[in-house]
Amino acid sequence: MNDSIFSKFSSRAGSALGALAATAMVTLPVAAQAQQAQAAQESNEQRGSTASDPFGIPEEVVMFEQQDPNLRTATAKVNGAVITGTDVDHRVALVLAASERSQVTAEEMQQLRMQVLRNLIDETLQIQAAEAQDMPVNPALIDERYSSLAKQNFPQNPRQMDAWLIGNGSSPATLKRQIAGEIAWRDLLRRNVAPFINVSSEEVNDTMERLKMSRGQDEYRLAEIYLSATPETAATVEQNANSILQQIRDGGNFQAYARQFSESTTAAVGGDLGYVRLATLPDQMAEVARELSPSQVAGPVPIPGGFVILLLIDKKQVLTADPRDATLSLKQIAISFESGTSQEAANQKVQAFSDAVNSMRGCGDAERVAQTVGASVVNNDSIAVRDLPEQMQAALLQLQIGQATPPFGSFEDGVRVLMLCGRDDPEAVNEPDFDQIMEGIENERISKRAQRFLRDLRQDAIIEYN
User: Which domain, by its residues, includes 332?
Assistant: First the structure.
Protein backbone atom coordinates (compact mmCIF):
# COMPACT_ATOMS: atom_id res chain seq x y z
CA MET A 1 0.00 0.00 0.00
CA ASN A 2 1.17 3.61 -0.50
CA ASP A 3 2.98 5.48 2.27
CA SER A 4 -0.34 6.99 3.25
CA ILE A 5 -3.66 6.39 1.60
CA PHE A 6 -4.48 9.98 2.36
CA SER A 7 -1.53 11.12 0.26
CA LYS A 8 -3.68 10.23 -2.75
CA PHE A 9 -6.58 12.39 -1.67
CA SER A 10 -6.76 15.91 -3.11
CA SER A 11 -8.37 17.95 -0.35
CA ARG A 12 -10.27 21.17 -0.78
CA ALA A 13 -8.38 24.46 -0.98
CA GLY A 14 -8.28 26.67 2.04
CA SER A 15 -8.95 24.28 4.93
CA ALA A 16 -8.95 26.19 8.21
CA LEU A 17 -7.48 25.59 11.63
CA GLY A 18 -7.58 28.98 13.29
CA ALA A 19 -6.97 29.56 16.98
CA LEU A 20 -8.65 27.46 19.64
CA ALA A 21 -9.15 30.47 21.86
CA ALA A 22 -9.64 29.73 25.53
CA THR A 23 -11.30 32.55 27.47
CA ALA A 24 -11.10 32.67 31.25
CA MET A 25 -14.58 32.88 32.75
CA VAL A 26 -15.30 34.59 36.06
CA THR A 27 -18.17 33.22 38.17
CA LEU A 28 -19.92 36.03 40.06
CA PRO A 29 -23.43 36.67 41.40
CA VAL A 30 -25.63 38.19 38.71
CA ALA A 31 -26.06 41.52 40.55
CA ALA A 32 -22.31 41.88 41.01
CA GLN A 33 -21.81 41.00 37.37
CA ALA A 34 -24.23 43.71 36.31
CA GLN A 35 -22.49 46.31 38.48
CA GLN A 36 -19.09 45.40 37.14
CA ALA A 37 -20.39 45.35 33.58
CA GLN A 38 -21.83 48.86 34.04
CA ALA A 39 -18.51 50.09 35.42
CA ALA A 40 -16.68 48.45 32.57
CA GLN A 41 -19.01 50.09 30.04
CA GLU A 42 -18.39 53.54 31.55
CA SER A 43 -14.66 52.92 31.51
CA ASN A 44 -14.88 51.81 27.91
CA GLU A 45 -16.81 54.94 26.89
CA GLN A 46 -14.15 57.08 28.53
CA ARG A 47 -11.36 55.13 26.93
CA GLY A 48 -12.92 54.84 23.45
CA SER A 49 -11.68 52.68 20.60
CA THR A 50 -8.20 52.91 19.11
CA ALA A 51 -6.49 51.56 16.02
CA SER A 52 -5.03 48.70 18.05
CA ASP A 53 -8.37 48.05 19.78
CA PRO A 54 -11.13 49.02 17.33
CA PHE A 55 -13.87 47.60 19.57
CA GLY A 56 -12.89 49.59 22.65
CA ILE A 57 -12.87 46.46 24.83
CA PRO A 58 -12.21 47.32 28.50
CA GLU A 59 -9.21 46.00 30.36
CA GLU A 60 -11.36 44.00 32.79
CA VAL A 61 -13.88 41.73 31.04
CA VAL A 62 -16.72 40.17 33.05
CA MET A 63 -18.82 37.42 31.47
CA PHE A 64 -22.50 37.16 32.43
CA GLU A 65 -22.76 33.45 31.64
CA GLN A 66 -21.15 30.81 33.76
CA GLN A 67 -19.18 28.64 31.35
CA ASP A 68 -16.66 25.87 31.66
CA PRO A 69 -13.65 26.79 29.47
CA ASN A 70 -12.74 23.10 29.28
CA LEU A 71 -16.10 22.15 27.72
CA ARG A 72 -15.87 22.16 23.91
CA THR A 73 -18.87 21.16 21.83
CA ALA A 74 -18.31 18.98 18.81
CA THR A 75 -21.40 19.46 16.64
CA ALA A 76 -22.92 22.40 14.78
CA LYS A 77 -25.59 23.62 12.39
CA VAL A 78 -24.30 25.52 9.37
CA ASN A 79 -27.10 27.52 7.75
CA GLY A 80 -29.41 24.75 8.98
CA ALA A 81 -27.27 21.81 7.85
CA VAL A 82 -26.30 19.56 10.77
CA ILE A 83 -22.75 18.35 11.42
CA THR A 84 -23.14 15.43 13.82
CA GLY A 85 -20.77 13.98 16.36
CA THR A 86 -20.48 10.93 14.11
CA ASP A 87 -19.32 13.16 11.25
CA VAL A 88 -16.57 14.51 13.47
CA ASP A 89 -15.62 11.05 14.79
CA HIS A 90 -15.30 9.57 11.32
CA ARG A 91 -13.26 12.47 9.95
CA VAL A 92 -10.94 12.37 12.97
CA ALA A 93 -10.44 8.65 12.39
CA LEU A 94 -9.61 9.33 8.74
CA VAL A 95 -7.05 11.99 9.72
CA LEU A 96 -5.37 9.68 12.23
CA ALA A 97 -5.25 6.76 9.81
CA ALA A 98 -3.92 8.94 7.00
CA SER A 99 -1.25 10.46 9.23
CA GLU A 100 -0.36 7.00 10.54
CA ARG A 101 -1.03 7.93 14.15
CA SER A 102 -2.52 5.17 16.29
CA GLN A 103 -2.40 6.96 19.63
CA VAL A 104 -2.78 10.60 20.67
CA THR A 105 -3.08 12.26 24.04
CA ALA A 106 -6.42 13.46 25.36
CA GLU A 107 -5.35 17.06 24.81
CA GLU A 108 -4.26 16.37 21.23
CA MET A 109 -7.55 14.60 20.55
CA GLN A 110 -9.53 17.58 21.85
CA GLN A 111 -7.59 19.95 19.60
CA LEU A 112 -7.94 17.59 16.66
CA ARG A 113 -11.71 17.36 17.07
CA MET A 114 -12.10 21.13 17.14
CA GLN A 115 -9.88 21.54 14.11
CA VAL A 116 -11.81 18.87 12.20
CA LEU A 117 -15.09 20.56 13.09
CA ARG A 118 -13.84 23.80 11.57
CA ASN A 119 -12.84 21.94 8.42
CA LEU A 120 -16.29 20.36 8.19
CA ILE A 121 -17.92 23.77 8.60
CA ASP A 122 -15.86 25.19 5.72
CA GLU A 123 -16.65 22.12 3.62
CA THR A 124 -20.36 22.55 4.30
CA LEU A 125 -20.21 26.22 3.33
CA GLN A 126 -18.52 25.34 0.06
CA ILE A 127 -21.10 22.69 -0.83
CA GLN A 128 -23.95 25.06 0.07
CA ALA A 129 -22.46 27.88 -1.99
CA ALA A 130 -22.22 25.63 -5.04
CA GLU A 131 -25.84 24.54 -4.63
CA ALA A 132 -26.95 28.17 -4.24
CA GLN A 133 -25.38 28.91 -7.62
CA ASP A 134 -27.15 25.95 -9.24
CA MET A 135 -23.99 23.86 -9.31
CA PRO A 136 -24.86 20.86 -7.11
CA VAL A 137 -22.20 18.16 -7.09
CA ASN A 138 -23.13 15.24 -9.32
CA PRO A 139 -23.11 12.01 -7.22
CA ALA A 140 -21.70 10.16 -10.22
CA LEU A 141 -18.59 12.37 -10.12
CA ILE A 142 -18.14 11.60 -6.43
CA ASP A 143 -18.39 7.86 -7.04
CA GLU A 144 -15.99 8.11 -9.98
CA ARG A 145 -13.40 9.94 -7.89
CA TYR A 146 -13.84 7.49 -5.01
CA SER A 147 -13.35 4.52 -7.35
CA SER A 148 -10.24 6.13 -8.80
CA LEU A 149 -8.74 6.53 -5.32
CA ALA A 150 -9.61 2.93 -4.48
CA LYS A 151 -7.86 1.67 -7.62
CA GLN A 152 -4.76 3.77 -6.88
CA ASN A 153 -4.42 2.51 -3.33
CA PHE A 154 -5.77 -1.04 -3.72
CA PRO A 155 -4.98 -1.95 -7.34
CA GLN A 156 -5.48 -5.67 -6.74
CA ASN A 157 -8.88 -5.28 -5.07
CA PRO A 158 -10.33 -1.74 -5.02
CA ARG A 159 -13.19 -2.93 -2.81
CA GLN A 160 -10.71 -3.10 0.05
CA MET A 161 -11.01 0.69 0.32
CA ASP A 162 -14.36 0.35 2.09
CA ALA A 163 -12.97 -2.20 4.55
CA TRP A 164 -9.86 -0.08 5.20
CA LEU A 165 -11.93 2.99 6.04
CA ILE A 166 -14.35 1.10 8.27
CA GLY A 167 -11.52 -0.79 9.96
CA ASN A 168 -9.90 2.50 10.91
CA GLY A 169 -13.10 3.88 12.45
CA SER A 170 -14.11 6.01 9.47
CA SER A 171 -16.49 5.27 6.58
CA PRO A 172 -16.82 5.53 2.79
CA ALA A 173 -19.44 8.27 3.31
CA THR A 174 -16.85 10.37 5.14
CA LEU A 175 -14.40 10.27 2.28
CA LYS A 176 -17.16 10.86 -0.28
CA ARG A 177 -18.29 13.90 1.71
CA GLN A 178 -14.77 15.30 1.52
CA ILE A 179 -14.63 14.59 -2.22
CA ALA A 180 -17.94 16.46 -2.63
CA GLY A 181 -16.42 19.46 -0.90
CA GLU A 182 -13.39 19.37 -3.20
CA ILE A 183 -15.54 19.26 -6.35
CA ALA A 184 -17.86 22.01 -5.11
CA TRP A 185 -14.95 24.29 -4.27
CA ARG A 186 -13.26 23.63 -7.59
CA ASP A 187 -16.45 24.52 -9.47
CA LEU A 188 -16.97 27.66 -7.42
CA LEU A 189 -13.46 28.90 -8.11
CA ARG A 190 -13.82 28.18 -11.82
CA ARG A 191 -16.97 30.28 -12.02
CA ASN A 192 -16.37 33.05 -9.48
CA VAL A 193 -12.61 33.54 -9.39
CA ALA A 194 -10.67 32.16 -12.35
CA PRO A 195 -12.47 34.20 -15.09
CA PHE A 196 -11.52 37.43 -13.35
CA ILE A 197 -7.80 36.76 -13.04
CA ASN A 198 -5.75 38.72 -15.56
CA VAL A 199 -2.01 38.35 -16.18
CA SER A 200 -0.33 40.68 -18.66
CA SER A 201 2.32 39.72 -21.17
CA GLU A 202 4.68 42.20 -19.50
CA GLU A 203 4.37 40.35 -16.17
CA VAL A 204 5.17 37.03 -17.81
CA ASN A 205 8.14 38.43 -19.71
CA ASP A 206 9.51 40.05 -16.55
CA THR A 207 9.22 36.72 -14.72
CA MET A 208 11.03 34.90 -17.52
CA GLU A 209 13.84 37.46 -17.41
CA ARG A 210 14.20 37.08 -13.63
CA LEU A 211 14.43 33.32 -14.05
CA LYS A 212 17.28 33.66 -16.54
CA MET A 213 19.12 35.97 -14.16
CA SER A 214 18.62 33.44 -11.34
CA ARG A 215 20.14 30.51 -13.23
CA GLY A 216 22.30 28.41 -10.92
CA GLN A 217 20.86 29.82 -7.69
CA ASP A 218 19.55 27.42 -5.05
CA GLU A 219 15.87 26.61 -5.21
CA TYR A 220 14.01 24.92 -2.36
CA ARG A 221 10.96 22.70 -2.62
CA LEU A 222 9.08 23.43 0.58
CA ALA A 223 5.80 22.35 2.12
CA GLU A 224 3.96 24.45 4.68
CA ILE A 225 1.29 24.29 7.33
CA TYR A 226 0.08 27.86 7.83
CA LEU A 227 -1.96 28.90 10.86
CA SER A 228 -3.27 32.45 11.02
CA ALA A 229 -3.07 34.41 14.28
CA THR A 230 -3.76 37.83 15.72
CA PRO A 231 -1.82 39.39 18.59
CA GLU A 232 -4.59 38.21 20.91
CA THR A 233 -4.60 34.60 19.69
CA ALA A 234 -0.87 34.22 18.96
CA ALA A 235 -0.04 32.29 22.13
CA THR A 236 -2.85 29.76 21.60
CA VAL A 237 -2.12 29.31 17.90
CA GLU A 238 1.59 28.82 18.60
CA GLN A 239 0.70 26.15 21.15
CA ASN A 240 -1.47 24.39 18.56
CA ALA A 241 1.33 24.62 16.00
CA ASN A 242 3.80 23.07 18.43
CA SER A 243 1.34 20.24 19.04
CA ILE A 244 1.00 19.56 15.31
CA LEU A 245 4.78 19.74 14.86
CA GLN A 246 5.34 17.22 17.63
CA GLN A 247 2.80 14.84 16.11
CA ILE A 248 4.62 15.04 12.77
CA ARG A 249 7.96 14.38 14.45
CA ASP A 250 6.38 11.41 16.21
CA GLY A 251 5.60 9.89 12.82
CA GLY A 252 2.56 11.80 11.56
CA ASN A 253 2.27 12.37 7.82
CA PHE A 254 3.06 16.03 7.03
CA GLN A 255 0.91 16.13 3.89
CA ALA A 256 -2.11 14.72 5.72
CA TYR A 257 -1.83 17.31 8.50
CA ALA A 258 -1.36 20.10 5.94
CA ARG A 259 -4.51 19.05 4.07
CA GLN A 260 -6.60 19.06 7.21
CA PHE A 261 -5.24 21.98 9.22
CA SER A 262 -3.34 24.46 7.06
CA GLU A 263 -5.18 27.69 6.29
CA SER A 264 -3.17 28.27 3.13
CA THR A 265 -4.65 27.21 -0.18
CA THR A 266 -1.61 24.95 -0.58
CA ALA A 267 -3.52 22.66 1.80
CA ALA A 268 -5.12 21.21 -1.34
CA VAL A 269 -1.74 19.74 -2.38
CA GLY A 270 -0.50 18.72 1.05
CA GLY A 271 1.12 22.09 1.72
CA ASP A 272 3.47 21.81 -1.27
CA LEU A 273 4.81 25.24 -2.28
CA GLY A 274 6.78 23.82 -5.19
CA TYR A 275 10.30 25.05 -5.86
CA VAL A 276 10.88 28.58 -4.58
CA ARG A 277 13.86 30.86 -4.14
CA LEU A 278 14.43 32.05 -0.60
CA ALA A 279 14.38 35.68 -1.71
CA THR A 280 10.67 35.32 -2.48
CA LEU A 281 9.82 34.18 1.07
CA PRO A 282 9.33 36.21 4.25
CA ASP A 283 12.69 36.73 5.96
CA GLN A 284 11.78 34.51 8.90
CA MET A 285 10.85 31.60 6.64
CA ALA A 286 13.94 32.06 4.48
CA GLU A 287 16.30 31.94 7.46
CA VAL A 288 14.81 28.68 8.72
CA ALA A 289 14.54 27.04 5.28
CA ARG A 290 18.20 27.77 4.51
CA GLU A 291 19.30 25.56 7.41
CA LEU A 292 17.02 22.60 6.66
CA SER A 293 18.05 19.27 5.21
CA PRO A 294 15.71 17.28 2.94
CA SER A 295 12.86 15.62 4.91
CA GLN A 296 13.53 17.85 7.94
CA VAL A 297 10.70 19.86 9.56
CA ALA A 298 10.98 23.05 11.57
CA GLY A 299 8.75 25.60 13.26
CA PRO A 300 6.51 27.08 14.24
CA VAL A 301 8.05 30.07 12.45
CA PRO A 302 6.40 33.43 13.24
CA ILE A 303 5.54 35.32 10.05
CA PRO A 304 3.24 38.26 9.36
CA GLY A 305 -0.29 37.06 10.04
CA GLY A 306 0.48 33.88 11.93
CA PHE A 307 2.81 30.89 12.14
CA VAL A 308 4.11 28.33 9.66
CA ILE A 309 5.54 24.82 9.98
CA LEU A 310 8.03 24.01 7.21
CA LEU A 311 9.16 20.80 5.55
CA LEU A 312 12.06 20.77 3.08
CA ILE A 313 11.14 18.23 0.41
CA ASP A 314 14.05 18.80 -1.96
CA LYS A 315 16.65 21.30 -3.11
CA LYS A 316 18.09 22.08 -6.55
CA GLN A 317 19.51 24.90 -8.66
CA VAL A 318 17.42 27.14 -10.90
CA LEU A 319 17.40 26.08 -14.58
CA THR A 320 20.21 23.62 -13.94
CA ALA A 321 20.06 19.88 -14.60
CA ASP A 322 19.99 17.91 -11.35
CA PRO A 323 22.43 14.98 -11.39
CA ARG A 324 20.04 13.07 -9.13
CA ASP A 325 17.70 12.79 -12.11
CA ALA A 326 20.26 10.57 -13.84
CA THR A 327 18.97 7.08 -14.68
CA LEU A 328 21.29 4.25 -13.63
CA SER A 329 21.75 0.65 -14.65
CA LEU A 330 22.83 -1.24 -11.52
CA LYS A 331 23.73 -4.73 -10.38
CA GLN A 332 23.20 -5.57 -6.73
CA ILE A 333 25.54 -8.31 -5.52
CA ALA A 334 24.67 -9.63 -2.07
CA ILE A 335 25.49 -12.31 0.48
CA SER A 336 23.45 -13.45 3.44
CA PHE A 337 24.26 -15.32 6.67
CA GLU A 338 22.70 -18.51 7.86
CA SER A 339 21.17 -18.65 11.31
CA GLY A 340 23.78 -19.54 13.90
CA THR A 341 26.74 -18.10 11.98
CA SER A 342 29.35 -16.83 14.43
CA GLN A 343 30.67 -13.29 14.26
CA GLU A 344 34.12 -14.55 13.32
CA ALA A 345 32.75 -16.66 10.46
CA ALA A 346 30.62 -13.72 9.28
CA ASN A 347 33.66 -11.42 9.27
CA GLN A 348 35.61 -13.93 7.18
CA LYS A 349 32.73 -14.23 4.70
CA VAL A 350 32.49 -10.45 4.36
CA GLN A 351 36.22 -10.19 3.74
CA ALA A 352 36.07 -12.87 1.04
CA PHE A 353 33.07 -11.09 -0.50
CA SER A 354 34.89 -7.76 -0.51
CA ASP A 355 37.99 -9.30 -2.14
CA ALA A 356 35.83 -10.92 -4.81
CA VAL A 357 34.07 -7.65 -5.62
CA ASN A 358 37.42 -5.85 -5.93
CA SER A 359 38.57 -8.50 -8.41
CA MET A 360 35.65 -7.99 -10.80
CA ARG A 361 36.50 -6.72 -14.29
CA GLY A 362 33.29 -4.83 -15.01
CA CYS A 363 29.62 -5.76 -14.97
CA GLY A 364 30.08 -8.67 -17.38
CA ASP A 365 32.22 -10.42 -14.78
CA ALA A 366 29.73 -10.01 -11.92
CA GLU A 367 27.83 -13.31 -12.24
CA ARG A 368 31.01 -15.41 -12.48
CA VAL A 369 32.66 -13.81 -9.46
CA ALA A 370 29.42 -13.90 -7.44
CA GLN A 371 29.24 -17.68 -7.86
CA THR A 372 32.69 -18.10 -6.28
CA VAL A 373 31.50 -16.61 -2.98
CA GLY A 374 27.86 -17.75 -3.02
CA ALA A 375 26.49 -14.29 -3.75
CA SER A 376 23.27 -13.44 -5.56
CA VAL A 377 22.98 -10.88 -8.37
CA VAL A 378 19.93 -8.69 -9.06
CA ASN A 379 19.72 -6.32 -12.06
CA ASN A 380 17.89 -3.01 -12.37
CA ASP A 381 18.32 -1.17 -15.66
CA SER A 382 16.35 2.00 -14.98
CA ILE A 383 16.48 3.48 -11.50
CA ALA A 384 16.76 7.22 -10.82
CA VAL A 385 19.45 8.34 -8.40
CA ARG A 386 16.92 10.32 -6.37
CA ASP A 387 14.87 7.15 -5.78
CA LEU A 388 17.73 5.60 -3.81
CA PRO A 389 18.45 6.26 -0.11
CA GLU A 390 19.99 9.68 0.32
CA GLN A 391 23.23 8.32 1.81
CA MET A 392 23.71 6.18 -1.32
CA GLN A 393 23.18 8.95 -3.86
CA ALA A 394 26.52 10.72 -3.45
CA ALA A 395 28.46 7.43 -3.54
CA LEU A 396 26.80 6.30 -6.78
CA LEU A 397 27.25 9.66 -8.51
CA GLN A 398 31.01 9.38 -7.96
CA LEU A 399 31.30 5.93 -9.56
CA GLN A 400 32.60 5.19 -13.04
CA ILE A 401 31.05 2.45 -15.18
CA GLY A 402 32.11 -0.95 -13.84
CA GLN A 403 32.90 0.31 -10.33
CA ALA A 404 31.05 -0.75 -7.18
CA THR A 405 30.21 0.87 -3.88
CA PRO A 406 31.93 -0.28 -0.69
CA PRO A 407 30.08 -3.18 0.99
CA PHE A 408 27.16 -2.12 3.19
CA GLY A 409 24.46 -3.84 5.23
CA SER A 410 24.23 -5.81 8.45
CA PHE A 411 24.43 -9.34 9.86
CA GLU A 412 20.61 -9.56 9.88
CA ASP A 413 19.91 -8.06 6.45
CA GLY A 414 22.97 -9.31 4.61
CA VAL A 415 25.88 -7.44 3.01
CA ARG A 416 25.76 -6.11 -0.54
CA VAL A 417 27.34 -3.76 -3.07
CA LEU A 418 25.88 -1.83 -5.98
CA MET A 419 27.84 -1.92 -9.25
CA LEU A 420 27.30 0.81 -11.83
CA CYS A 421 26.75 -0.65 -15.31
CA GLY A 422 25.34 2.38 -17.11
CA ARG A 423 24.26 5.97 -16.60
CA ASP A 424 22.02 8.30 -18.61
CA ASP A 425 22.52 11.86 -17.41
CA PRO A 426 19.54 14.21 -17.33
CA GLU A 427 19.05 16.55 -20.24
CA ALA A 428 19.72 20.23 -19.81
CA VAL A 429 16.80 21.99 -18.15
CA ASN A 430 14.76 24.07 -20.53
CA GLU A 431 13.47 27.42 -19.42
CA PRO A 432 9.73 27.40 -18.71
CA ASP A 433 7.78 28.69 -21.67
CA PHE A 434 5.44 31.66 -21.73
CA ASP A 435 2.28 29.63 -21.13
CA GLN A 436 3.76 27.72 -18.16
CA ILE A 437 4.78 30.93 -16.42
CA MET A 438 1.43 32.56 -17.08
CA GLU A 439 -0.35 29.53 -15.63
CA GLY A 440 1.81 29.68 -12.52
CA ILE A 441 1.03 33.35 -11.91
CA GLU A 442 -2.68 32.75 -12.50
CA ASN A 443 -2.75 29.85 -10.02
CA GLU A 444 -1.04 31.95 -7.37
CA ARG A 445 -3.61 34.72 -7.75
CA ILE A 446 -6.50 32.27 -7.75
CA SER A 447 -5.20 30.88 -4.43
CA LYS A 448 -5.19 34.34 -2.86
CA ARG A 449 -8.68 35.13 -4.12
CA ALA A 450 -9.89 31.75 -2.89
CA GLN A 451 -8.85 32.64 0.65
CA ARG A 452 -10.89 35.83 0.51
CA PHE A 453 -13.84 33.97 -1.03
CA LEU A 454 -13.89 31.43 1.81
CA ARG A 455 -13.55 34.19 4.39
CA ASP A 456 -16.65 35.88 2.95
CA LEU A 457 -18.60 32.62 3.14
CA ARG A 458 -17.70 32.30 6.82
CA GLN A 459 -18.70 35.87 7.61
CA ASP A 460 -22.14 35.47 6.01
CA ALA A 461 -22.86 32.08 7.60
CA ILE A 462 -25.28 31.37 10.44
CA ILE A 463 -23.58 28.76 12.61
CA GLU A 464 -25.15 27.25 15.73
CA TYR A 465 -23.06 25.09 18.04
CA ASN A 466 -24.87 22.31 19.89
Answer: 323-424
